[in-house]
Structures are given as structure tokens and as C-alpha cells.
Amino acid sequence: MIKNTLAFFILFTVFFNLPAQDILGQWKTIDDNTGDAKSIVEIFEEDGKIYGKIIAVFNPDVEHRKCIDCSGEQKDQRIVGLVFIEGLTKNHNVYDGGTILNPENGSTYRCRLKLENDTDTLQVRGYLAFFYRTQYWKRVK
Length: 141
Hints:
Elements (H helix, E strand, L loop, with lengths): L1 H16 L7 E6 L6 E10 L2 E9 L25 E9 L2 E9 L4 E9 L5 E8 L2 E9 L2
Antiparallel strand pairs: 1-2, 1-8, 2-3, 3-4, 4-5, 5-6, 6-7, 7-8
């Protein structure tokens, strides 16, 4: 009886807690100024690091736009398909240590991702020295 109870508890914990705490998947980006949905981003893991790629945009005028102000590998890449979050690692309950690119102006910032308590909201923060900008993205179900 104790073994069955313990096994049930372990399965219950794994089934209900792990997926909810995972930032991997698709997220709808929300403009922090207008509140409008802008794009769908896929957060994925590669070689132990976290990355983010724009997989769709809601504004058809942006769909074929390129990142003309970007530098390096991102220069002149299409916005859709652009990997703009790079190299984050998990540090307790946040993912940091990497960068986020603003494709609208080509600027790169230090980045931090953190799940909110509801686990369907992702806090996305870009830093430049002591200044930062925060957006809240919604999980795509």
C-alpha cells in the first residue's frame, strides 16, 4: 500500500509540475505599449542553452521584412525565422546569461526569462546597464 501511494505521489508530481514549469514551446508576444499581439515565438533548447525564434507575425506588412539594422549573422535575415534570443541557461527559477535582439532597431540586450506564477505568462526582460524593459508573453495552447 505504501509503495502504491508513493508511486502515485511521484507520478502526480511529475505529471502536474514539470510541464507547467517549462518555458519551452510557443509564446504570443504582446507589445508592452499597445497591448496588441505581435508575433509567435518558439522557445527551444539546443546544446543545453535556451533560444527563441520568431515563427509568425500578425502584421502582414512585417512578414517579409528583414532585419536591416542588425549586425553579424542576423543582418538582413527575414524577421520570420529570426533567432533573436540566444544562449540563456537556467539559474534557479530564471533563465539568463544570454541576449535578446530587438529586430526593430538591431539593438542587443542582456536577457532574462521567468515564468510567472500562472505558468502561462512569461516575463521577458531585456537589460542595458541599469535600464530594462519588460514584456509579458502568453503561452500558445
